[in-house]
Amino acid sequence: MTIARVIACGIFAAGLLLARPLRADAVDDAFIEGNAAATREQWSDAVAAYERAGALLGAPSSLLSYNLGTAYAHLGDLGRATLHLEHALDFRGSPSAELAESARANLGAVRRRAELAAATSGALIDRPQTWWDLVVEALRAPGVGWLALLCGVAAAVVHLTERARRAKAGGSFSVRVAVFALVATWAIAGSLHALALRADRTAPPAVVVGATTPARDGPGLHRNSTWSLATGAEVRIVDRTPGWTLVRLAGGLEGWVPDTAIAELQRPFGQSR
Question: Which of 13, 76, 82, 111 is most buried as measured by Cβ atoms within 10 A of its Cβ?
Fold first, then answer.
């Protein structure tokens, strides 16, 4: 199956995944208008309608992000396609299992096109996602934090209960093992969850949405550039100055790019920086 066919199949599947109505009538109308334009393969009109729906909604929606990212993919805008398809996988948008599967398929197709474009232009793109990246991504989920909290509470309750029982009839080895396991889970899961959240706060992820973008050794067009970032590359934001952002590729390579060339992954609709 070709990349174009993968993407085309995805957007029509997404149109069947609407599990709940979007909140405002204006949002609903814009969403329906976008779906109608996508059915006619009028992708620019679809993007405009979906962007309007997102701006009115002002909250994450995996379905809306999926359709918008897929429309951008059809237009060949690989950076914004990557951005919105990544948004579609964000747990805050409540993606269904079927939508998440379609989003990953389309994201993979877009990624292959971005890598080919990067190889052709000589620009750099981030390395492919590894199993460790998936682990770190999972650790950010609030469920991990709740798991750590519940294990800590359960460990405290079991410990206090066992302490009271032991004062009367002696201790139990199995209970002590259970307390140790709960405490270990609380400490490990809680620490890893905190570290993942801290990484997102100190160096938030972003996507290069501009065309091939020169990375400079300082903020300003007068500064030297020895390499470029490919559209669709995922980077980390290290520092900012008015109009410019210092970004880091996986592996540690850093460079300054214009603010308009990137968009943060964790920003809601209408706020790219």
Answer: 82
